[in-house]
Amino acid sequence: SVPGQSPLRLSGNYAFGVTGGRPKGNCKVQNGSEIMANNGRFIFKVDGTVSWTGIEYGVCTGGAINSAPNQGNGTYKLSTEGLTTIDFDPTNPGTRVIHVHMRADRQVAIGAGHRSTGDPWGAILIKTSSGQSNQTMVGDHHLVRSVQINDSQGLATHTNLGVASFVGGGTYTEKGQAHGVSPTGKTVDSVYSSKGTFRVSADGSLTAGSASRPGAVASDGSAFFWVGRTGPRVELTIGLRRAKKTRYLSRDWRVAGFG
Q1: pLDDT number for residue 130
Q2: Please, are residues 146 and 135 in contact by the beta-carbon 8 Å criterion?
Q3: What's 248's DSSP letter?
Q4: How far apart (Å, rounded) are the C-alpha atoms in residues 90 and 87?
Q5: CB within 8 A of 207, min separation 6: which ones?
Q6: What is the distance between the alpha carbons of residues 35 and 158, in angstroms, rounded to a whole number?
Q7: Is the dihedral of CA 40, 66, 31, 95 positive or negative?
Q8: What pLDDT sits at residue 169?
Q9: Contacts 24+ apart (CB under 8 A), 137-140
Q10: What DSSP line would sit under 218-237, residue for residue?
Q11: Residues 148, 258 contacting (CB under 8 angstroms)
Q12: Could you say which of 116, 131, 143, 144 is the most buried, measured as most Cβ atoms within 10 Å of its Cβ?
């Protein structure tokens, strides 16, 4: 913030989705690692504090699952460029900090793990609001998906890049390109198509298929996400509304990578 001016503040509930990996993590397997998919809510207040509730879901090498609730309180700072710094342990400043980049309208934020956080991860936050329904999602969306599987065969990864079309009755279809890497390093590229169901609650909460894939949609329908966690498989799916006529890349953009 600028000296002599009030600091920039956030207010409201933000649904979040995170996937990534943690060397060792909560696993007891020797030389093992953990993949994870977390989701929940941040509640930001104008006094500079933030609280959160959610579920941490991890899969150890070999498929052992760790799942537990996660909640706490911290502080945050928002810069004039939209960089939001969240301190999960303000009693020990700087020891548990993440940074996310907030969109100018403060409805959507993205982030990724880097040297200060230790673990590789990608995250999205979407502000939730009342008055939503399946109609919020209707239309075509550009879609990306990152999938990790950590079963007895070893770690495998998959990504999808495509277009998803949603209709108000609660169904959607997808088509696009798929890329996979097996535990042995073999790569497979293919064209894929799929279909599914979805439901948007009044507060903007999104469920894709089943309760094991929760997420959220922005109030204007411009962005959505869902987190998947089924057995040894975790995923993060993100969509941006597809426009027929748009001026792309005419300004500065914040970029986050999803491994």
Answers
A1: 94
A2: no
A3: -
A4: 6
A5: 198, 199, 201, 213, 214, 215, 226
A6: 13
A7: positive
A8: 93
A9: 137/166, 137/172, 137/198, 137/200, 137/206, 137/217, 137/221, 137/224, 138/166, 138/167, 138/168, 138/221, 139/165, 139/166, 139/221, 139/241, 139/242, 140/164, 140/165, 140/166, 140/241, 140/242
A10: -TTSSEEEEEEEETTEEEEE
A11: no
A12: 143
Q: Check: CB of residue 12 under 8 Å from CB of residue 219.
A: no
Q: Tell me how far apart the alpha carbons of residues 188 and 181 are, in angstroms, rounded to a whole number.
A: 7
Classify 136 as helix, strand or coil: helix
C-alpha distance from residue 111 to each of 17, 34, 120, 178, 194 (Å): 10, 20, 11, 24, 28
What token pair was written down for 49? 């504090």
Q: From its phi and psi, is residue 106 left (phi > 0), alpha (psi between -120 and 50) or beta?
A: left
Written as six digits, the tokens of 87 are 């301190």
Per-residue burial over 61-92, b if 16 or more Cβ lie within 10 Å, else e, is beebeeeeeeeeebbbbbeeeeebebbbebee
User: Per-residue DSSP letters for 198-225?
Assistant: EEE-TTSEEEESSTTSEEEE-TTSSEEE
Q: What is the pLDDT of residue 254?
A: 47
Structure tokens at 3: 């000296």
Torsion angles phi and psi, residue 137, rounded to 5: -90, -15
Give alpha helix (H) positions in 6-154.
Answer: none
Name 154's bridge partners.
151
Both structure tokens of 199: 């439901």
- Tens of pLDDT, residues 179-238: 999 999 999 999 999 999 999 999 999 999 977 899 999 999 999 999 999 999 999 999
